[in-house]
Specification:
Helices cover about 75% and strands about 0% of the residues. With about 260 residues, the chain is an all-alpha fold. It starts with a helix and ends with a helix. GO terms for molecular function: ABC-type transporter activity.
């Protein structure tokens, strides 16, 4: 068992290195994923922020959690595209014919998504600091934020994996990003849900992104998180497990 685990992790490391090399050879992917959320942050803070009442003195502090989630959502289309490309080129079939762990290639893409998202999020936070973002949170709160963002990224990556492995065209692989983009927009990421019409408010309050945003916002402002953190974790873990099961089924059918 120990030998099998060692082979799996070493094979997964090789596949991670392969996928990361593709990323660094095409930095426009990370740049695109990072620039769009930064542009949205600049737009909302400097153009629309003065007209939005959130009860906070610094709108960028309120806005940042939602922007981070949008950055992650923006990246899943590229993850799906890279998986689709490997499927179309027969890369997975070649890997499966080699003496390596069968799921290592898929996990390589998943871990690449986590690493590239981490890079993008760090850049966005640095820009937010230049825009006036300040947080009294301690190291444990920041680690909790990092953990939630990583879990959210993992959840969306497994959803993207299903689309990338089962899509029939490039457009079909990338379309998964569009509906995911709407979730942060129709949540408490930009404005308090109490300002929304009743029907929209009900959707915003009971969809996955709002408790995740509220948890991150509370952690960064050093406020009690309440039950929101457990709701956020339940959403992420539940969706991630379901998406993982379906992604692995599709992947095995491809092999």
């Amino acid at each position: 068992m120990e030998t099998i685990k060692n082979y799996f992790f070493s094979d997964m490391g090789v596949m991670l290195g392969r996928s990361m090399r593709h990323i660094f050879r095409s930095l426009d992917t990370i740049i695109t994923v990072t620039i769009m959320p930064i542009a949205m942050m600049l737009l909302f803070v400097y153009v629309l922020g003065g007209a939005i009442q959130t009860g906070t003195s610094n709108y960028v502090d309120y806005l940042l959690p939602g922007i981070l989630l949008i950055a992650i959502a923006n990246s899943v289309g590229y993850t799906s595209y890279r998986l689709f490309t490997d499927v179309q080129r027969g890369i997975f079939e070649r890997f499966n014919s080699m003496p390596i762990a069968r799921s290592a290639a898929l996990w390589g893409h998943v871990l690449t998504s986590l690493v590239s998202n981490a890079i993008s999020l760090v850049v966005i936070i640095l820009v937010a600091l230049l825009m006036g973002f300040r947080s009294p949170a301690g190291i444990l709160s920041w680690l909790a934020v990092a953990g939630i963002l990583a879990l959210f990224s993992l959840t969306l990556t497994w959803i993207a994996a299903i689309a990338g492995l089962s899509a029939k065209s490039v457009d079909g692989a990338g379309v998964i990003a569009y509906p995911i983009h709407f979730l942060p927009l129709i949540s408490s990421a930009f404005v308090p849900t109490r300002t929304m019409p009743s029907g929209v408010r009900a959707f915003a309050e009971y969809q996955p992104v709002t408790p995740i945003v509220e948890t991150i916002r509370a952690l960064l402002s050093n406020q009690p998180v309440g039950n929101e953190i457990w709701i956020a974790l339940a959403w992420c873990v539940g969706i991630s497990c379901i998406a993982y099961i379906f992604a692995m089924r599709v992947y095995k059918k491809r092999g």
